[in-house]
């Protein structure tokens, strides 16, 4: 636990240093660009840093089998550590960019209890009585902020990879990042496609389609890819990387299924988002697919009629929540989460990785699947 907390601090400090450097550069262009760095800082000030943690422990899993674990107990004792911190911070910037774009596509008003980026820019436009559309300005500004964060994530990753002694490892890690970026993007598209084109699919196809979105939009990108990226930076063997993937993918599935439950039933005071936000956004998740499979036709029609209505009342939200609970889908999702964690831990047992990483990954598997936000 102390090392986990210290790693989060180190990544936070690196992000702050990087943003300070970029703020200085942007300041030479125009004072108005302070809005971008301020929004970036606010967005990156929160979060659980799961992707950074999995990147580090993926690296440690391999590096710790070459050097004794006790030499890696302190973060500053390995020559490649600063490269790993840059890669981990780059993943956090990539995640921030994805959140900015995701909030635009979902028309989300809040993120982590604060206005989402496009709402933040929109509110300033309205407050200052600028000309034109406040909504259009907010969306355009947030799109550019997300694009900027994407570019910055590449800068940080490349900075770290360039300093690795093993440039074959650097190239393998860069290829992993590129694959992750592609899969997240197309996964996001499949998600918004399901929201609008679900009527074109057969009922029997809705669950596998929802699972496909879960895997490519979130599961691989949240855990498997950061683990593999870190392991590849350390020069991990095919067996080591394959074992970490076999751990990371089912754990990522469990992670996203927990997120889907929180999106429907989470406490707004804890999640920082309105109750039932996924219901208003029309998310066709595994939870919804399972509920539709189990419910009678009248209840399915109720879900299909209400899901995706941005003007859902609190009463309608409660009705949908009760309908989903009554279907037994919540219990089914909980059982899938449990099975997925069991599958992940079984894969970890056969992995040839460092003792410290093995223990820490077990702890992280519990943290990411039992969370309340």
Automatic annotation (TrEMBL):
Q: Does the keyword Transmembrane apply?
A: no
List, separated by semicolons, the cofactors it needs: Mg(2+)
InterPro entries recorded for this chain? Isoprenoid_synthase_dom_sf, Polyprenyl_synt, Polyprenyl_synt_CS
Work out whether the entry's keyword set contains Signal.
Answer: no
Give the top-rank taxon of the lineage listed in the UniProt record for this protein.
Answer: Bacteria
What's the family?
Belongs to the FPP/GGPP synthase family.
Protein name stated in the entry: Polyprenyl synthetase family protein
């Amino acid at each position: 636990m102390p090392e986990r907390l210290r790693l989060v601090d180190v990544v936070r400090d690196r992000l702050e240093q990087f943003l300070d450097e970029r703020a200085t550069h942007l300041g030479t262009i125009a004072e108005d660009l302070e809005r971008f760095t301020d929004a970036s800082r606010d967005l990156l000030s929160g979060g659980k840093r799961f992707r950074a943690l999995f990147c580090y422990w993926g690296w440690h899993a391999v590096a710790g089998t070459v050097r004794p674990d006790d030499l890696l107990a302190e973060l500053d004792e390995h020559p490649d550590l600063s490269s790993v911190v840059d890669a981990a911070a780059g993943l956090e910037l990539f995640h921030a960019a994805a959140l900015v774009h995701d909030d635009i596509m979902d028309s989300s008003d809040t993120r982590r209890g604060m206005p989402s980026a496009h709402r933040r820019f929109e509110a300033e436009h309205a407050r200052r009585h600028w000309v034109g559309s406040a909504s259009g300005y907010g969306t355009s500004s947030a799109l550019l902020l997300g694009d900027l964060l994407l570019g910055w994530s590449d800068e940080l990753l490349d900075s770290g990879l360039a300093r690795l002694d093993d440039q074959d490892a650097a190239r393998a890690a860069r290829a992993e990042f590129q694959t992750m970026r592609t899969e997240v993007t197309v996964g996001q598209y499949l998600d918004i496609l399901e929201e609008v084109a679900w009527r074109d699919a057969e009922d029997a196809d809705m669950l596998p389609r929802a699972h496909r979105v879960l895997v490519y939009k979130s599961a691989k990108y949240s855990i498997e890819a950061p683990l593999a990226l870190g392991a590849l930076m350390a020069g991990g063997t095919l067996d080591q990387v394959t074992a970490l993937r076999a751990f990371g993918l089912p754990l990522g599935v469990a992670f996203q299924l927990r997120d889907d439950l929180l999106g429907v039933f989470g406490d707004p005071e804890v999640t920082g988002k309105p109750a039932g936000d996924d219901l208003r956004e029309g998310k066709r998740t595994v939870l919804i697919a399972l509920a539709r499979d189990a419910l009678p036709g009248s209840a399915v029609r109720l879900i299909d009629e209400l899901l995706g209505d941005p003007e859902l009342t609190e009463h309608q939200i409660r009705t949908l929540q009760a309908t989903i609970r009554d279907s037994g889908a919540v219990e089914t999702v909980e059982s899938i989460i449990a099975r997925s964690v069991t599958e992940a831990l079984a894969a970890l047992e056969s992995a040839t990785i460092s003792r410290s990483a093995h223990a820490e990954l077990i702890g992280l598997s519990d943290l990411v699947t039992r969370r309340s936000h």
